[in-house]
Amino acid sequence: MARATNCLRQRLCPENPKDLNFQLMEGCMPEGFFQADVYMTERRHLIFATVEQLTTVTKAKSWDIDGTFKLVQKPFQQLVMINAFVPSGDHTNQVPLLFVLMSRKSTKYYKKVMKKVMHLLPIQPAVQQVSLNIDKAIWKSLRSFLPTVKLEGCVSWTRPCGGRY
Questions:
Q1: Prior bond of 122 cis (ω within 30°)
Q2: Predicted pLDDT of residue 26
Q3: Are 71 and 80 in contact (CB under 8 A)?
Q4: CB within 8 A of 164, min separation 6: which ones?
């Protein structure tokens, strides 16, 4: 049953884009999940999150920002995720809440994307601390929009580093 459903879904959805000049098919994703298409100097970055996820990001006091290159195919280079701890019964789980497909990674692109993310949030975020990988471009962009937030570097999401910046 699951195999048949996956085959049908693959036939209904478009192929992966070969370049950045493609039309996004919002009908192939959950309603309201696509939030923004950020263009800048022939680069394109796509932001995804539901309204509920944006609200949860806004309320979270701690964010973990992580990026991966392994899951992404050209023309995109990186998937950046904003994760937060969400209560679930008597414990909390770290949950990815906001996703950004980046076609290039540099300070100017991260700044443009962060500006859009801040605009998408329903109110000023309550975040007080952000853990993120040690990528100077991301650090600089966060400092522009969240100057009072404590930034902490991480070796990986499973082992936070002792250095605080």
A1: no
A2: 78
A3: no
A4: 150, 151, 152, 153
Question: Please, is 141 exposed, middle or buried when counting C-beta atoms within 10 Å of its C-beta (0-12, 13-18, 19+)?
Answer: buried
- What type of residue is 133? N
pLDDT tens per residue across span 17-33: 887 888 877 777 888 99
Question: Cα 119 from chain centroid?
Answer: 14
* Helix H or strand E encompassing 97: strand 91-102
Locate 18 and state its tokens. 């070969």
Domain boundaries, the chain: 29-153
Angle (CA) 120-121-126 rounded to 5° is 155
Q: Which CATH class is domain 29-153?
A: alpha beta
Residue with tokens 């990026």: 67
Average pLDDT by stretches of 10, the chain with 165 residues: 63 77 80 91 92 95 89 89 90 92 89 93 92 79 86 59 45
